[in-house]
């Protein structure tokens, strides 16, 4: 199980795990639960540059269509093809096999994101 306290979060319900200058990004279990059963995921292309707070992909569920926002500015170094092939991974393992993209970022930018306590407060303690 991922240590949720070691992650950073955005107010758009993405989580970020930093390893050196590589940020692994996914959506939180809170977001996955609110979306319902995810049936389609569109991710940015590898080697594309993404800008923080801009839409870089789409997540469709049986309930709605959600936009995936870049939590940080960087270059996409990997997209999770397993999630594209099996979108239900976003629901079943959002902090593990359901990750979405890996970005090469400025590690110092991560400090600007929310910690676990701030994210739980944002969701009204529902987490």
TrEMBL record:
**Described purpose of this protein according to its UniProt entry:** The glycine cleavage system catalyzes the degradation of glycine. The H protein shuttles the methylamine group of glycine from the P protein to the T protein.
What quaternary structure, including any partners, is listed in this protein's UniProt entry?
Answer: The glycine cleavage system is composed of four proteins: P, T, L and H.
> What cofactor does this protein call for?
(R)-lipoate
Residues that the record marks as modified (N6-lipoyllysine) are: 63
Q: How is the cofactor bound?
A: Binds 1 lipoyl cofactor covalently.
The name this protein carries in UniProt is Glycine cleavage system H protein
> What SUPFAM superfamilies does this protein's entry cite?
Single hybrid motif
Which Gene3D superfamilies does the entry link to?
A: 2.40.50.100
Asked if the Swiss-Prot or TrEMBL record annotates the protein with the keyword Metal-binding, the reply is no
As for family, the record states:
Belongs to the GcvH family.
Q: For this UniProt entry, which segments traverse the membrane?
A: none
- Give the UniProt keywords, A-Z: Lipoyl
**Domain Lipoyl-binding per the UniProt entry, residue ranges:** 22-104
């Amino acid at each position: 199980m991922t240590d949720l306290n070691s992650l950073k979060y955005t107010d758009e319900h993405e989580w970020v795990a930093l390893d050196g200058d590589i940020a692994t990004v996914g959506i939180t279990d809170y977001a996955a639960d609110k979306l319902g059963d995810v049936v389609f995921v569109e991710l940015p292309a590898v080697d594309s540059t993404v800008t923080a707070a801009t839409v870089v992909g789409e997540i469709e569920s049986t309930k709605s269509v959600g936009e995936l926002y870049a939590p940080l500015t960087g270059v996409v170094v990997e997209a999770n093809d397993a999630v594209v092939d099996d979108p239900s991974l976003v629901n079943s393992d959002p902090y593990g096999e359901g990750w979405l993209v890996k970005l090469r970022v400025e590690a110092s930018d991560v400090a600007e994101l929310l910690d676990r306590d701030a994210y739980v407060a944002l969701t009204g303690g529902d987490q």
